[in-house]
Amino acid sequence: MTDNKARTAAKIKSIISFAGGSFSRILYLFSRRGQLVVSHDNKNFNEIMDHAIDLGALDVEEGQDANVNVSSIVHLRLTSAQVFVDPEAVSLKARLFKDSGYEIHEADTVWVPLPDVQQQPDGATAAKLRKILDQLDADDDVTEVYSTAIFAS
């Protein structure tokens, strides 16, 4: 967190303006959601999703599978899921997952772009936007950056 909001806002405006962008309020393009990243070493994504729905999840997305070396002999393939819940219930849902034997990798409140506002920028715009996002991310006073852009891999 910054100790000087006015200075930080001025720096953010400067980064955006220097790249040819404009500074405006866009909060209405996002919804506040609780986000859990959970995994279970004995369950596949569909089983994790079913459990998340039973616990009242708003949305579930498949996470990245990871190979975990438990020892030089034992290797596990870990399936994870990104579970979106009511932002007021993050701690409760995390505890319910944990009590059911799930591992909680992340439990936080995030801003998620609304589906109808997400866009994939063209080449030049994408490059400019990536530069802005990288500069914002590099600023010590900026703790989180959210975007409605969908970047091609």
Structural summary, described in words:
The protein has a domain at 30-113: YebC, transcriptional regulation domain (Alpha-Beta Plaits, 2-Layer Sandwich), CATH 3.30.70. Strands 1, 2, 3, 4 and 5 form a five-stranded antiparallel β-sheet that branches. It contains four helices and five strands, in the order αβαβββαβα. A hairpin with a 5-residue loop joins strand 3 and strand 4 (75-85). It has helices spanning 5-18, 45-54, 90-99, 123-138; strands at 30-40, 59-62, 66-69, 75-85, 103-113. With 153 residues, it is of the alpha+beta class.
Question: Can you summarize this structure?
Answer:
The protein is an alpha+beta fold and about 150 residues long. It has helices spanning about 5-20, 45-55, 90-100, 125-140, and strands at about 30-40, 60, 65-70, 75-85, 105-115.
CATH-derived topology of the domain at 30-113:
Alpha-Beta Plaits
Corresponding CATH architecture of the domain at 30-113: 2-Layer Sandwich
Q: Uncertain regions: pLDDT < 50 for 5+ in a row?
A: 67-71
Q: What structural class is derived from the secondary structure elements? A: alpha+beta
Provide key terms for this protein.
Alpha-Beta Plaits; single chain; 33% helix; 153 residues; alpha+beta; 4 helices; five-stranded antiparallel sheet
SSE blueprint and pairings:
Blueprint: H1 5-18, E1 30-40, H2 45-54, E2 59-62, E3 66-69, E4 75-85, H3 90-99, E5 103-113, H4 123-138
